[in-house]
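call fold target=Threonine/serine exporter-like N-terminal domain-containing protein
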Amino acid sequence: MVPETNSSHINPSSISDGNNLPSNLLEFLTELAKAMTAAGIAVMTIEAILKNICRAYGVKAQEVIDFPTFVLIKISDDNSRALAVTGQKPGLLPLDQVSRLYELIYQAENAEITPEDGINRINDIINVKRQHRYVRHILGYALYSTGLGMLLLPTTNELLFCGLLGAIVGLIVGYAEDKPRLTLILPVLTAFLVSMIFFFGVKQGIVAGSLTILVPSLSYFIPGVVLATGMYELAANNVISGASRLVQGVVILLLLLFGVIIGLQVVGLSPGEYMVAHLASPLGWWAPYLGILVFTLGMYLLMSIRNRDMLGVLIVLFTTFIGLQVGNYLLGGLFGAFLGSTIMTMGGTYLERSRLKTPYYVSIIPAFWILVPGSLGFISLATLAGQNYSASITNLIMVVLTFVAISMGLLIGAVIADPLKIE
């Protein structure tokens, strides 16, 4: 999902011919690989970064193999060799931690930090202790959900309901933040509670019966980024890592679907009493643009985006959305997904190399929710709850094609952006 890093500043002739590896370099590389995997960075980018760091420290990286749950690194100079194998646990890091991680990567790629200091920095970044931030989670998720809703929903009443569901999810996420056991069942539990409230509102006539309303409130758990990264890795011939991410994403979608169906059954709402919709008419031409601002503010609170990165995030969000809209207008949704993804990749790469220095991954993660690939997949599966099988099959085919379009946009955007050098 991230373009290859630029290694033009590294001189191959500087690789050491000595007999000793730098102290703790292997441990530093493995810890860094684990941290980047936890951030969700694509495996080919992790491998490229580790090789660049090895060159910077005068060591040849003979083998660097990274998977979502496993990393193997073999480094050597002329006579010395070292091999490390370590387990990894993929997750989702707050974006301020990702920004700090990228700053460390930049230093390591220029050998400006010792491996020992690098290990300490990684521990400081990953193991930071955060107090319960209920207000930030509740308000942030309510804004996040409302902002996405403005891209999908047609009425003020539905937006208010969407914000309410988002606030409930924010409370649940905040409560489960330091409870690993609860985190394992969080997608099912959240989908069940939110869908039960939604279907009860439909039954009482409080809100119109469109499953689209569930998308913004559950989108935190919808694995759009995981699925798109998996498709990108498959397209780049990283079969094992790509396939494992796709399986992970599909399982999460099925867990969410299970929670929604249980919520439907508890409320006792028949499938004919609610409507399944892909897209809803926006409030007006201004609504999506205002929605992006509201969504970004919610992401700022929920995902802890640093102040200095906000401008870059907004630039990538708006350019991605405009590319998506232009593509939709010209040739339809698939071309819109492709064009938006291409512009997102190029914009994120440009900003990382510009004076803003907004880390690529930090700027594109919010933009993935604008592309909404995972939401399409969730709605497609949700049509099964209404026993609309023909529509489900058609929708799922479109979802697969959408992922192909996004992954191709990522690849082509990376190829175009790679020669860019912003001084």
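return ok
The first helix runs from residue 25 to 38. The CA atoms of residues 146 and 390 lie 31 Å apart.
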